[in-house]
From TrEMBL:
One of its GO terms (molecular function) is mechanosensitive monoatomic ion channel activity. The gene is Tmc7. The keyword Transmembrane helix applies. It is found in: Membrane. Residues 468-578 form the TMC domain. It comes from Pelecanoides urinatrix (Common diving petrel). The chain crosses the membrane at residues 148-170, 246-264, 336-361, 390-413, 425-445, 477-495, 582-606, 648-669. This is Transmembrane channel-like protein.
Length: 695
């Protein structure tokens, strides 16, 4: 043990480190680079402060102006001395540098105040922090994700309302001396342009309005909520001509691109954290043991739950290690048995999925063929008709409920690790939820595209059943969203609350054994991602659907908060906040990519309605793009055609490949550097060169 004098004990470790050759070489490299890197070094301890005071104003003025004293790892007294030095050295600078330093400090102060003020305007700031304090960061990540979807849908609504709905309303009502034009489609049979919405006429009962509100028919069909309302070819706002078909298509591409970029930006940080957590198993053990506690927790029950969660994670890791050893020791006969069982179970899963898809297809066909056959004027007939219209939504909801239960039961026999069991079950549930929407749209398209007569073939779609098929698809998406909200509300009111009352006031063993329903983060996330996928697909057919989604998620936030606080308990197997945020965004990105497929088919392949909508003069919705390009100057047309040609596409693809290979090589180099740094961190424990003397 080394004994040092009293006055040098505090500064000894710093002086010792500054005497290392690596520190001296680093100083020489910074000096050779012109002092650029030197500005990043903070004076540490009393020795660092003396070094800062020793440097003259000419050498230190830029550094002192660049970093405030509070950013240095010094004591309060040393920070005060450093601040006095900074203020004294400013007078040695030129007028331009003094103004630059003063303005930089003022701007930074203003930005910090604006950032602090904006944090108070953050939606649900207090509620989310309260949830985080009681239940930890895992459940808090779900509510933060819900807030993100509220903001995303609100911005999508602003985009569609500003570029599609507002110009249409202004031109139709003649506001600001505006007008609109409706150009009759050319070379189109007259019977294809007939569209008579089923609006309410004469004496209308109250329950009829209620039925229309649930199904999107009647008075809602002729409002700005659906595609058929925007039957305008051009709008004149004062002297400016507004191309509504082009604006409608570009706004659709805009909200899809905005969603994609925002999700990728938010998922970048989560991906890096998840990569760091999963890189090294030994590091995972250290993180759980030494840094696994969530210091945001203040509730005793949540603390006990966190204890059990850490215990469960360690047991899961040990179980995975045991399974790895078991897998390594398997004989050929055991491998053959387990692989055969897995093949059989996967065949069963495919059969369950096929049954769900076929049920949705038959329900959709039956609903489309019979929903408008018997429209009566009594409540029984209208109620039956409403049930027929909601039949696809009910079948989809039933499939989303039954299929995950079957998957959770079958996964137990496949002998996977616990972590992989959760991932595989979630991926199957994601697939069944999102694929159900695709099957519904496929069923609708099969009905829309079915033509048995020459008149129908002349229109390109089934004009008799679907004179404005885009509005019909919008109504189906609207019903899916409304029914999904009704189910979430009904489960909370009629399942969770009665169960809470029974568990609280009934001492029967079966009731106590069942207990409260767990607040499963993954299941709740799948619910809202399913609804968000519906919103992305339906916004093209119902431009105001994002406004409904915003209101829906706003209400769901409080429903889930009340459910968490009063009727449910946190899951016994919570997931880490960093990995959960990344998982949420990855699943959301999958939903967005799957939404591209039906929208792309609807825009580029299926003929647009000739009786309604902004694209009635075009064969498809995409046809408005080449038609607009033909109105450009000849030189600009040639440039755009050159960009779209193979002569440009092939070199551009090669450049993209080279850039991609460069970033792959750069990532590999960074990975090797990280591995070397890890090796050096391990050597710190054994190499006395890195160790400081004991005091």
């Amino acid at each position: 043990e080394v004994f040092l004098p009293e006055e040098t004990r505090a500064a000894a470790p710093v002086d010792f480190l500054q005497e290392l050759p690596s520190y001296q070489s680093a100083l020489r490299r910074r000096a050779a680079a012109g002092g650029t890197q030197e500005r990043r070094a903070a004076p540490q301890g009393s020795a660092g402060l003396r070094a800062a005071e020793a440097r003259g104003p000419e050498q230190e003025g830029g550094e002192l102006g660049a970093r405030p004293a509070r950013e240095y790892p010094l004591s309060i007294a040393e920070k005060r001395r450093l601040r006095d030095c900074q203020q004294a050295d400013i007078k040695y600078l030129s007028g331009w540098k003094q103004w630059k330093t003063t303005s930089s400090k003022s701007l930074k102060k203003v930005l910090n105040e604006v950032k602090e003020f904006s944090s108070y305007l953050e939606l649900w700031r207090h509620d989310i922090r309260s949830i985080e304090g009681k239940f930890g960061t895992g459940i808090q990540s779900y509510f933060s994700f819900l807030r993100f979807l509220v903001l995303l849908n609100f911005i999508i609504f602003i985009l569609m309302f500003s570029f599609v709905t507002l110009p249409t309303v202004i031109s139709e009502y003649g506001i600001f001396n505006s007008s609109f034009a409706k150009i009759a489609p050319k070379n189109i049979e007259p019977h294809c342009t007939v569209y008579k919405p089923s609006g309410n006429k004469g004496l209308v009962y109250f329950y009829t309005y209620f039925k229309d509100l649930l199904s999107g028919t009647g008075f809602l069909e002729v409002t700005a909520l659906f595609y058929g309302y925007y039957t305008i070819d051009a709008a004149w706002l004062s002297i400016m001509r507004y191309n509504l078909p082009l604006a409608y298509l570009l706004a659709t591409f805009g909200y899809l691109a905005l969603s994609l970029l925002w999700i990728i930006k938010r998922s970048g940080e989560g991906f890096k954290q998840n990569l760091v957590h999963d890189e090294d198993q030994f590091q995972s053990y250290c993180n759980k043991i030494f840094a696994g506690w969530d210091f945001c927790i203040t509730d005793p029950n949540a603390a006990q739950l966190k204890h059990r969660s850490l215990q469960y994670e360690l047991q899961t890791d040990l179980e995975e290690e045991r399974l790895k050893r078991k897998i390594a020791d398997r004989t050929m006969k055991e491998k053959l048995c387990i692989y055969s069982l897995r093949i059989f179970i996967n065949i069963t899963v495919i059969a369950v999925l096929s049954g769900c898809f076929y049920s949705i297809y038959r329900a959709t066909v039956f609903s489309q063929e019979n929903s408008n056959v018997s429209i009566g004027h009594d409540i029984k007939t209208d109620s039956a008709n409403l049930l027929v219209q909601y039949l696809p939504s009910m079948v989809i909801t039933l499939a989303n409920f039954i299929a995950p239960l079957i998957f959770s039961f079958l996964i137990r026999f496949e002998d996977y690790s616990p972590a992989f069991e959760i991932r595989l079950t979630l991926m199957r549930c994601i697939f069944v939820r999102l694929a159900n929407i695709g099957v519904l749209l496929f069923s609708l398209w099969s009905q829309i595209s079915y033509c048995a007569t020459d008149k129908c073939k002349a229109c390109g779609y089934n004009y008799e059943l679907y004179p404005c098929w885009e509005s019909e698809v919008g109504q189906e998406m609207y019903k899916l969203m409304i029914f999904d909200f009704i189910i979430i509300l009904a489960v909370t009111l009629f399942v969770d609350f009665p169960r809470k009352l029974l568990v609280t006031h009934c001492s029967c063993k079966p009731v106590q054994w069942c207990g409260l329903q767990e607040f499963g983060i993954s299941d709740n996330v799948l619910e809202i991602i399913y609804g968000q996928t519906i919103c992305w697909i339906g916004t093209f057919f119902s431009p105001l659907l994002p406004a409904i989604a915003t209101i829906k998620y706003f209400i769901i936030f409080y429903i889930k908060k009340i459910s968490l606080m009063h009727t449910r308990k946190p899951a016994a197997r919570p997931i880490r906040a960093s990995s959960s945020n990344f998982f949420f965004l990855v699943v959301l990105l999958i939903g967005l990519i799957l939404a591209f497929i039906p929208l792309g088919i609807s825009i580029a392949h299926i003929p647009s309605s000739k009786a309604c909508g902004p694209f009635r003069s075009f064969n498809t919705s995409w046809a408005v793009v080449p038609d607009t390009i033909r109105g450009f100057p000849t030189g600009l047309q040639q440039v755009l055609h050159s960009i779209a040609s193979e002569a440009f596409a092939v070199p551009f693809f090669m450049v993209i490949c080279l850039v991609m290979f460069y970033f792959i090589a750069l990532a590999g180099a960074h990975k090797r550097v990280v591995e070397q740094l890890r090796e050096q961190l391990v050597m710190v424990r054994f190499d006395p060169f890195f160790c400081t003397p004991k005091v």
